[in-house]
Amino acid sequence: MTAPDPNPTDDELARQARAGSLVAFDELVARFEVRLFRFLVQGTRNETDAAELTQDTLVTAYQKLAGYDPARSFATWVFTIARRKQIDFFRHHGVRRDHALGITADDLVDEADPGRLAEQAEERDRVWDCARASLAELPFQALWLKYNEDLSVEQIAAVLGRTTIHVKVILFRARATLATALARWERAADSGRPAVPAAPPITARRMAPPALTL
Question: Which of 55, 84, 65 is nearest to 11 (CA)?
């Protein structure tokens, strides 16, 4: 008899949860709760709203497990649910999110990987603060899913509801815009002027959402 895998993948846990294992789903909650919260709080800029959306996302995922396709990545599936919850939240509260990229051809530069830029910056958090301030919602989410969640272009396309070609263009332009914004930030820092437009303070990087209750 084959012993259970002590370190099952997310997708294997999702298959077990779909078959009725609450233990497997609890493990998925443990793995994804903070990740989903971090993703959602970047859009809501409010920890309470993000925590509620995180709970709603995970409860919906549990309720819809029967419809989960085991051939699909669980991460892609659950982040898609989270993004839809966020869109519904914005619509309900009358919050407008401009998805235009808002850049020109002059802003485009060659590869500027935010992961590498973050390592070169004094603090990684500042890079993402700069991204939050300089990018519209859609390109910011694409970058976040790529570099914080390590999703593939195909997975990001599924979450955002775009084609893979569109996602590649979004990522390319978002990297260019971020590189330009960071260069502007460095020049401002050298001159003693405020570098990044102020945004509502959040503590997502240090705060975990409350435990899920089904």
Answer: 65
